[in-house]
Amino acid sequence: MVGSPVVFSVHEPAAGIVLAAGASRRFGQPKPLLDYRGRPFVRAVAEAALAAGLSPVEVVTGPHADEVDSALTTLPITIVRNTDWAGGQATSVRAGVAVLPSETGAAVFCWRTSHRSPRPSSRALINRHAQSLPAIVAPLVAGRRANPVLFDRATFADLLRLSGDVGGRAIWSAHDVTELPGLTRPCFSTSTRPRTTNGCSAHARRAVARTALAVAVLNEPG
Questions:
Q1: Which tens digit of pLDDT belongs to each residue from 97-147?
Q2: Which of 12, 135, 144, 155 pairs with 104 at a CA distance of 20 to 30 A?
Q3: Count of domains in the chain?
Q4: Whose CA is closest to 209, among 67, 33, 31?
Q5: How many angstroms separate the Cα of 106 from the Cα of each of 63, 80, 155, 209?
Q6: What is the DSSP letter of 40?
C-alpha cells in the first residue's frame, strides 16, 4: 500500500509592504528620499523587494506622497496612499494590508530606510515560513529580534485592528514568533551611511544606524 505523500513545505505568494508614510519630523527631512548611491532609499528598497520575488510590492505613502511617487516611476509596484498618516504607523500598516490580494499567504514588511538588497534574507524568511506556516517569522540580530519581519495571513485581521503609533510588533504577544538566526554583530560604517545624513541631527544619525543594523540582516545568506 502506497502511503500518502509527505508535504515538506507550502509555498504561498508573499507580498512586500514598504512603509514610507512617516512625516520624518525629528529626522529633519523625508527618510524615504535620502540619497543612497545615487537613488532614493525608497526606490532601492522597492527594487530589492521586487528582485527578491515578493509580489505584489506595495509602497505606502503619506505627507511626501508626490515626491515618493516620483522616486518610484517605472517600477511595477502598487502605490497605496495613506491619507490618515497623521494617526500613526498603524494607519500605514492597515492601509497596506487592506489592499493585499486575497491569495496572499504572507507579507514581509520592508522598512522605508532599508537600503541594502533584501533578497537573501527575504528568501530565508519565506523558506522558513513554508516549512510550517508560522504566524510570524523574525530574524535575530546579535540575539535580538529585528527587521524585516514576515507576517502570515493568519495575523492580517489583527494587523487591521492596530491603532496609534505602533507597528506589527504590537501583535507579537498574541502569536507565536518563530526566530530566524541572523547576524552576530552590527554591520554599519561610513561606507554604508547615506550621504545626505552628513550634518543631520544626532537623532537622524541614530535612526540611520538602527536601520543599518536591520539592513545588515537583509544581506544574510538565505
A1: 999 999 999 999 986 544 444 455 778 889 899 999 999 999 887 778 888
A2: 144
A3: 1
A4: 31
A5: 27, 18, 9, 28
A6: E
137-182, pLDDT tens digit by residue?
998 877 788 888 999 999 999 999 999 999 999 999 999 999 988 6
User: Which residues make Cβ contacts (< 8 Å) with residue 96, sequence separation at least 6?
Assistant: 17, 19, 58, 60, 80, 107
Residues whose CB falls within 8 Å of the CB of residue 119, separated by 6 or more in sequence, listed in order: 48, 51, 52, 218, 222
DSSP letter string, 149-208:
EEEEGGGHHHHTT--SS--GGGGGGGS-EEEEE--SS----TTTS-GGGTT--HHHHHHH
Residue 2 to residue 127: CA distance in whole angstroms: 28
* Domain assignment of residue 191, given as a range: 14-218
Q: Is 8 among the domain residues?
A: no
C-alpha cell at 172: 507579537
